[in-house]
Write a structure and sequence with these properties.
This protein is α+β, with helices and mostly antiparallel strands. The protein has a single domain, classed as Rossmann fold, CATH 3.40.50.1820. 18% of the residues lie in helices and 27% in strands. The chain has 1 helix and 4 strands. Strands 1-2-4-3 form a 4-stranded mixed beta sheet, with helices on one face. It is globular and about 40 Å long. The termini are far apart.
């Protein structure tokens, strides 16, 4: 597969009452989930994610308040809200 031609599918999932956006480059293989930094989004991984599609199920999601994910008025604690969203996303999308 020519990985440079792989484009992600834009998808949404519900986690903790919030609509989370994620990009998925492949649907087969061992899951590989990319997380962006504080000023990023799932698109931060557009250049590198295609390199892994032959061996992994590649996904990257927008944390709450970022990219196309929901933007609640509150609930932006790293140790609580973000961690819970990540855990819920992984549990629900990868089971």
């Amino acid at each position: 597969m020519t990985t440079s031609k792989v484009k992600p599918q834009s998808k949404f999932a519900e986690a903790n009452g919030l609509r989370l956006h994620y990009n998925e480059w492949s649907t087969q293989g061992t899951p590989l989930v990319f997380l962006h930094g504080i000023t990023g989004s799932s698109n931060s991984w557009d250049a590198i994610a295609p390199s892994f599609v032959d061996d992994y199920r590649v996904m990257a999601f927008d944390l709450r308040g970022h990219g196309q994910s929901g933007k609640p008025d509150s609930g932006y604690g790293w140790e609580t809200d973000y961690a819970r969203d990540i855990s819920t996303f992984i549990t629900e999308q990868l089971d």
